[in-house]
Amino acid sequence: MRPSPAFRLATLPFLVLLLLSCGKGPALFMDTPLHGTFLNAATVLVEGRLRNPAQFVSLEVNGVPVTPAANWSVTVPLQAADVFNRISAVGTLGSGAIQRKSAVLIVGDGVNSGFVLDGDPSPQSVALRVAETGLDQIAPIVESLSSDALDISALITDQNPIATGSMSGINYVANVVEVGFGGFGLDVTTSPTGLDTTVTITDFFLEVDLDLGFLGSCTLEVETASADISGSYDLEPLASDPSFVDVNLVSAVGVVLAGFSSQFVSGICNDPLIGDIVNLIIGQGDIQQLMQDGFEDNLADPDGTGPLDSPLAGGIQAALAGISIAGPVGSALGGVMEAEIVSVVEEVSGLTIAADAAIYSDSPDPEAPDLTASYTVDETFPTFGATTPVGGLPYGLAFAISNSAMNQLLKTQIENGLLRDTITEFLGFPLTAGVMSQLIPEFGALPPNDPIVIELAPTIAPVFTGAPGPGGEFAEMKIAGLEVAIFAPTAGETLIALEVDLDAGIDLAFTPAGLEFSLATPATGGIDLTVTTNAVNTDEPTLIFTFQQLFPLFAGELEDAIDAFPIPSLLGLDLDPVEVAQLSGGFIGLFANLVQRPTTTIQNAVFTDLSSSDFQESGGCWLREWRHRLSGNQFGNVVSANMRGMLGADAGCTTNDASSNATMAFQIDFDVVSVPGEQWTIDIDHSIAGALDRISDGYNDGIGFQDGGGTATLQTDVQGSYQIVGGASGNFDFAASTTQISDGIGGGSNDEYAPFSGSNGTTLVGTGDVSVVLNFSVQLDTFSNSNTAFPTANGDEMAIRLGKNDTIDNNFTAGSYPGAGSRNIADDGHKVSVVLTSVPAP
Predict the structure, then answer these.
(1) Residue 511: CATH number of its domain
(2) What 3-state DSSP class applies to 769?
(3) Do residues 532 and 626 share a domain?
(4) First to last CA, the chain
(5) Is there a contact between 218 and 170 (Cβ–Cβ < 8 Å)?
(6) How far is CA 667 from CA 121, 568, 613, 631, 640, in A?
(7) How far apart are CA 719 and CA 739, in angstroms?
(8) Is position 299 within any domain?
(9) Are residues 607 and 511 both part of a single domain?
(10) DSSP 62-110
């Protein structure tokens, strides 16, 4: 009959004790506390067991006598000032043999010191200071990032209508339909109220649809030499992701348009009578003020202190997304760093970001210990001056880290394999049994040429205490539970094992590699050794004394096993170290200047308009027009251009045909300034979008007056070519999807609309400095046929729309936007994109 599960469960403890006590020799067990336990306490209860307790003549725990028994316990005092408290249980057998069990506790007082659990943050443990000098150093990067983030065209058109109101009884509504600009600049200074920012847009061009109510609508072109948009912005943690900053407008937006000019180019305002009236009512000064007021209103914060951002604040916020403490450190550690920003303080001399830091490993070394917490000390968040605290030197960026955060870094690196090392040489000679026998005579029993290996393996993480080193070094680092195992591979067993506890002095150097450590050789008295294995039965006091004398010789090995800690960069800039210093409150401060990382760049971009000159001609009942505009800009390694145009013709009587033809062409020149060892790639794309339009102005009576018709034609492919000066050249043309519309004499009287598009690209790859020339062109033709011979005919309005409105009066509508197809004027034109990237040369 099988025993019941209840019976088996009830007898399990008895069976365990029977197995432990029968047929095995005496043994000492220490059950609690476990090695690596964190405590905020003044005492600890130590509990353990003895197997065959009668064979033990004595038992001591940290020197306190304990009566040998099957189960034993004793309360041991702890010293928070020592941080690492070793609990050692020593049992002596009647034979004189000694058994030991040992555990190291990490002890705090719960007020000035303690611990933070793995994955939890240390409050306000890291700081990032951007000084006024640093703002100047990052300005080019922020400007470039802002120009990418601030889509000026979308920024302005998204605010439509930009102006509404009434003037002299005429209600008006102004909507921007096209935006162009040549350059972009951003100036940022700090003040107690925030970041005082001025965005400067040069060669600013706007096309505005002005609805004048009962009078009708006009197209207004506005050009300014520059537009300055100023405001003050406050930085604070981003609610949705506190790892980043939130940018909020805290002042009124100011807009100044300089070198202002405007003209009505189409619509009712071109009517001789209505146009004169409108110009009298809305003069140049009125239009300028109307534009400025409209921008100020529409670029303001839409909901005041609410969650919505002003358009510029949103763009600047996107640009400052590179200000994150977490990413660079976490990725360099091979772990995770969560740094939630808790405050951003702006001052005249700079801004300071404070963050809580949680640092942990997400893929630890399977052979490394898995640590549950890290040691923390109470520290005061630092203050920063305009210069470094020791040398009084100017700096652009300071990164400060508390000892608590440093201990999280150490914990993470221990879990990733830090301090694990294998030593096979001593003083430049291979470690052999013969060499070791000079130190430990019992090794003489092995063949003298047998190799000996010493392995270092941490069991708990070292800690920074916040105090200076024992010899006046920069900082004190306590190391405990560092296992030193000596084994002979040929014997296949560990011969001697010890655990090392020491107080080390650490000096720090701030280098481009990060924060590097140098370990001061600890004095003999600062090294405690605990023997855990003695398979060769050597004299243990002599062994401990020998290793205390020799361990400083292994300090270099220990130092090499401590990695440099990475320091976060800002917006991808490199750090030029200035100083490392202890800050008020115990933080470690690293001061640097920000320098742009050398890389291959595009420089000196020049845009040249090679198109036919604009014309507008009319004679009686016929007219012809060509108008165009080239806009181009360069931001970093991105060059973009857009050529917009409109070609139109209309023969309104039988005496003259109307024919217009033009070349739309432009050139882009730029230099590639290379960095040795890099290979660059230039991706060049060009595309076209527009429409061929015909509006019938005639009819067919079958015998007399006829519909004249006409044609609108892209006479050539859209041509693109490149030339590397002194080297390769090539073409990357394409045919547009539709190239012609046509209607003959006496044809249909219906209007015709034919959109067209197309694109092509090429890639250039090379090394070294080069100059590149790009050329783009397309031939355009419009013809309105009046048929000068019988039958009489009225030519159709013919136009090619490529992103510009006509300026002809309202009797010509084929060249106007949105027109047929309700086209978005901003989408049309001949657009070019040039993007340079670089990688290490193969």
Answers:
(1) 3.15.20.10
(2) coil
(3) no
(4) 78
(5) no
(6) 56, 42, 15, 11, 12
(7) 14
(8) no
(9) no
(10) TTEE----SEEEEEEE--GGGSEEEEEEEEEETTS-EEEEEEEEEEE-S
> Rounded to whole angstroms, how far apart are CA atoms 38 and 113?
11
Q: What is the pLDDT of residues 690-699, one digit of tens each?
A: 999 999 876 5
CA distances from 714 to 639, 651, 690, 782, 827 (A): 26, 20, 11, 9, 18
Indicate the Cα dihedral angle 772, 604, 151, 645, nearest 10°: -60
Same-domain check for residues 639 and 523:
no
Give the global pTM. Answer: 0.71
The answer to whether 138 touches 188, Cβ cutoff 8 Å, is no
Residues 689 and 800 in one domain: yes
Furthest-apart CA atoms within the chain: distance in Å? 137
Q: Residue 234's pLDDT is what?
A: 82
Please tell me whether residues 558 and 605 are part of one structural domain: no
Contact partners, residue 753, CB within 8 Å, separation at least 6: 691, 692, 693, 694, 820, 821
What is the average per-residue pLDDT within 682-687? 98
Same domain, 503 and 607: no
Q: Determine the residue type at 313.
A: A
Structure tokens at 450: 């047998």
Cα separation, 101 vs 30, in Å, equals 6
In the prediction, which pLDDT does 124 show? 92
Residue 208's nearest CA partner among 238, 245, 175, 235 is 175
Secondary structure of residue 656 in the 3-state scheme? coil
CATH number for the domain spanning 35: value is 2.60.40.10
Q: Which of 71, 91, 111 is the last residue of a domain?
A: 111
Which 8-state DSSP code applies to residue 381? P
Estimate the crossing angle of helix 403-415 against helix 326-333, to 10 degrees.
Answer: 30
Strand duo 740-743 + 706-714: pairing: antiparallel
How distant is the alpha carbon of residue 72 from its chain centre?
58
C-alpha span between 482 and 555 (Å, rounded): 13
- The CA dihedral of 332, 337, 340, 341, to the nearest 10 degrees, is -30
Question: Distances in Å between the alpha carbon of 479 and those of 39, 257, 360, 565?
Answer: 17, 65, 19, 18
**What is the residue range of 791's domain?**
598-842
Same domain, 619 and 544: no
Q: Is residue 517 part of a domain?
A: yes
Q: Tally Cβ neighbours within 10 Å of residue 837.
A: 13
Query: Is pLDDT of 55 > 80?
Result: yes
* Nearest alpha-carbon partner for 219 in 285, 158, 278, 156: 278
Contact call for residues 807 and 266 (beta carbons, < 8 A)? yes
10 Å CB burial of residue 45 (0-12, 13-18, 19+) is exposed
Structure tokens belonging to residue 214? 């009962």
Q: Are 801 and 827 in contact (CB under 8 A)?
A: no
Domain limit, last residue, from 562, 585, 618: 562
| Integer Cα distance of 254 and 293 in angstroms | 9
- The DSSP symbol for 793 reads E
DSSP for residue 432:
B
Q: Which of 295, 158, 165 is nearest to 222 (CA)?
A: 295
How is residue 407 annotated by DSSP? H
pLDDT, tens digit, for every residue of 763-792? 999 999 999 999 999 999 999 888 766 666
Asked whether residue 272 is domain-assigned, the answer is: no
Q: Do 727 and 835 belong together in one domain?
A: yes
Q: Total domain count for the chain?
A: 3
Helix (H) or strand (E) holding 513: none
Q: Is residue 691 part of a domain?
A: yes
Average pLDDT, the chain: 83
Centroid of chain to Cα 453? 45
Q: Nearest CA to 628 among 81, 147, 178?
A: 178
* Residue whose tokens read 């002003």: 310
Closest by Cα among 517, 519, 522 to 470: 522
